[in-house]
Each structure stands twice: as structure tokens, then as C-alpha cells.
Amino acid sequence: xxxxxxxxxxxxxxxxxxxxxxxxxxxxxxxxxxxxxxxxxxxxxxxxxxxxxxxxxxxxxxxxxxxxxxxxxxxxxxxxxxxxxxxxxxxxxxxxxxxxxxxxxxxxxxxxxxxxx
Length: 117
Fold this sequence. Notes:
By secondary structure, the chain is of the alpha+beta class. The protein has two helices and five strands. Strands 3-4-2-1-5 form a five-stranded mixed sheet, covered by helices on one side. A hairpin with an 8-residue loop joins strand 1 (42-46) and strand 2 (55-59). It starts with 41 loop residues before the first strand and ends with a strand.
């Protein structure tokens, strides 16, 4: 049997009646999406818990879930692959680190960094 993992920023929160409630990485409620120049994004290659398949992971997005999904859709379209966007992370299938970093820098995400290999 597998155990269900709690999110990193769980902090004991069980239920919220606010339909727009979400938590940032530091556990504070998300208010507004930071402008692209202030976003501190990290682009990482990952294959953990994916059956050996490689994905490009974009971490560190601060803002509303709708804005995260919009950015994720633009990145997936640019790379021509599938993926998902949730919990402050964007997953793009395959190794597209260079393309993603170049696209983010061109779109104004000046604090983007490529981590690892």
C-alpha cells in the first residue's frame, strides 16, 4: 500500500471556505501574480517518480493558478510537447531546458536560472 504524501507547505491546514484560497511555497496565501521581472524561476531536468521519463520542470512561480496555467500552456505550445501546470510548477515533457530558458528570458522573466547539468 502506498502512503499519500502531504504537500510541502501543508502547515496543518485542513479546510478553507474561501473558493480562491491557495498557499505560496512559504505557506502564506497567494494574493497577486508577481510581474515577470520579479519572478524567480528555476528550470530543472527531472525524472523522479515518472517511470524514467525525462521532464523539464519550471519551479518557483508565485501567483494565481490561472496565470500559472496560462504560462504553462504557452511554454508547452512553444516546445511542441505536453505537460501540466499545478502547485507552482510547470512540467514540460522532454528535455527542453535551453528552449524554455531562452523563451522565458525573451518574455521578460529576467531572474530565470537553469539548475543542474
